[in-house]
Structure to design on (162 residues):
């Protein structure tokens, strides 16, 4: 299996921005969970509805299958908002050799960023629920303060990769 870098974080932490830049810098493939989330799930989130356990578990199984197939072909950066530890474990267990980064930012920063993303399927109204539903990350990882410039975030990640 090729190198796999996984970026977790709540909505608004900058996973897609950081993941895109990191993949470009490393010349890896970038696979963004947000981009492959089924339309019906995006619509639920747009309507401030929480995705039910069964729906997410089915989607996650497909996501994991696609990610593992991709990782067998090329090195990849993956970004994902996965709130439950059991779901994260499913992904991490399927990719035994990975490096995990968790982006974190204060709630007010997340709210501001989400308000500044008009039209995005995950609006600011759900962030409190996402925080309430989110389990701590127990897997070995590097925690990154996402409340700093992209350049500083990238420099911090780069230090952990060398």
């Amino acid at each position: 299996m090729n190198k796999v870098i996984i970026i977790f974080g709540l909505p608004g932490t900058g996973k897609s921005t950081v993941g895109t830049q990191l993949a470009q810098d490393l010349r890896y493939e970038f696979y963004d969970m947000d981009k492959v989330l089924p339309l019906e799930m995006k619509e639920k989130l747009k309507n401030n509805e929480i995705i039910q356990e069964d729906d997410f578990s089915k989607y996650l199984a497909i996501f994991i299958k696609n990610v593992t197939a991709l990782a067998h072909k090329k090195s990849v950066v993956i970004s994902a908002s996965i709130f439950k530890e059991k779901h994260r474990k499913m992904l991490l267990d399927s990719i035994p050799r990975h490096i995990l980064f968790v982006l974190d930012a204060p709630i007010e920063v997340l709210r501001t960023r989400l308000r500044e993303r008009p039209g995005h399927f995950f609006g600011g109204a759900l962030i409190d629920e996402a925080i309430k539903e989110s389990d701590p990350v127990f897997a070995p990882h590097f925690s990154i303060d996402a409340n700093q410039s992209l350049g500083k975030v990238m420099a911090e990640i780069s230090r952990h990769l060398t």
Observations:
- The chain has one domain: 4-161.
